[in-house]
Design goal:
alpha+beta; Cyclophilin; 8-stranded antiparallel β-barrel; 8 strands
Length: about 200
């Protein structure tokens, strides 16, 4: 009976720690540590970890910064930095089913890690990190006209200072309004790896 109880306790400890898997990005701007919520968003976390484990994010970049001053044509303003493979389609895995915040119970708060997408269930390699709370990215929010929001699946636990410094980077010139969101010098993710 004692060994059964110890075995059961070991399983509980395993699953509770497995649900809060951590990943570290070593970026040119400094380290960013992410905590992933596999218990709430298992499909999205599994997809992200496949990119990490297969080294697909090694050499990827943070390339887009969305600030209040570079969204002239948007009625619903947000603040995020976006990273991933950008145009490297040969390293991209197939899209996954979207786990909306209505399903997961997660919210787009300051430091939230979420999957970027166009159409629903088109998310794959691109992700973003929220700066400040962004409720318009949740299910029912108005940033995406379909109202499905985005798939939050983790958060930054260390390195929000790095995230904020990336967001303040110089963007490419886009004519007189200068409303480009693309960084002049994307910030490279040297390595992405699971933390022990």
């Amino acid at each position: 009976m004692k060994s059964y109880i110890y075995g059961l306790l070991s399983l509980i400890v395993f699953f509770s720690t497995a649900s809060a898997q951590r990943v570290q990005f070593d970026t040119e701007a400094g380290p960013i540590t992410l905590e992933l919520y596999a218990d709430k968003a298992p499909v999205t976390v599994a997809n992200f970890l496949q990119y990490v484990d297969e080294k697909r994010y090694d050499g990827a970049t943070f390339y887009r910064v969305v600030r209040l001053d570079n969204q002239a044509n948007s009625a619903v303003k947000i603040e995020v930095i976006q990273g991933g493979l950008r145009d490297e389609s040969s390293r991209r895995l197939p899209p996954i089913a979207q786990e909306t915040t209505q399903k997961t119970g997660l919210k787009h708060l300051d430091g939230t890690l979420s999957l970027a997408r166009g159409l629903p269930s088109s998310g794959s390699s691109e992700f973003f990190i929220c700066i400040n709370d962004q409720p318009e990215l949740d299910f029912g929010g108005k940033r995406n006209p379909d109202g499905q929001g985005f798939a939050a699946f983790g958060r930054v636990v260390e390195g929000m200072d790095v995230v904020r410094s990336i967001q303040q980077g110089d963007v490419e010139s886009a004519g007189p309004a200068n409303v480009s969101q693309m960084l002049k010098k994307p910030v490279q993710i040297r390595t992405a790896k699971r933390m022990e």
